[in-house]
Write a structure and sequence with these properties.
Number of helices: 2
Helix content: 10-25%
Largest sheet: 9 strands, mixed
Radius of gyration: 14 Å
Number of strands: 11
Distance between the termini: 18 Å
Amino acid sequence: MCQIGDIIKIENYKGDDGVEVGRHSFVVLATENDTIQGLEVEFDLVGTPMSSIKSEQQREKVEKDVGLMIIRTNDQNGMPASNYEESFIKTRLMYYFKKSNIEYSVLGSLNTETFLALQEKLKYLDERNMIRQVLTNV
């Protein structure tokens, strides 16, 4: 069972291009049963994907992109050791899932301060219609 703010690893899912992707981390944004207004689409998990920062050049690029949010290892609780000290959240992509269709495990969670900053970032992007809803998994 996962909760809002958890960082989960989804074993297999369809990317925004419809291609199968294996093992990827997401931050959980919602876990309630709901439908997408105007569509007959039911979901019970909403998440935004994460990736590791692997170089200084990539870090600089991520810093300049308003749709990305850098997080450090101390912004997370209970996460296993990683080869990378920093990650980023792809805040402009919001994936919708049916938990019964995916296999996932909880890795840890964002700390409260970081999750609140993420919510502010999402609000900012939403007000500017910069969030893309990905429905390939419902």
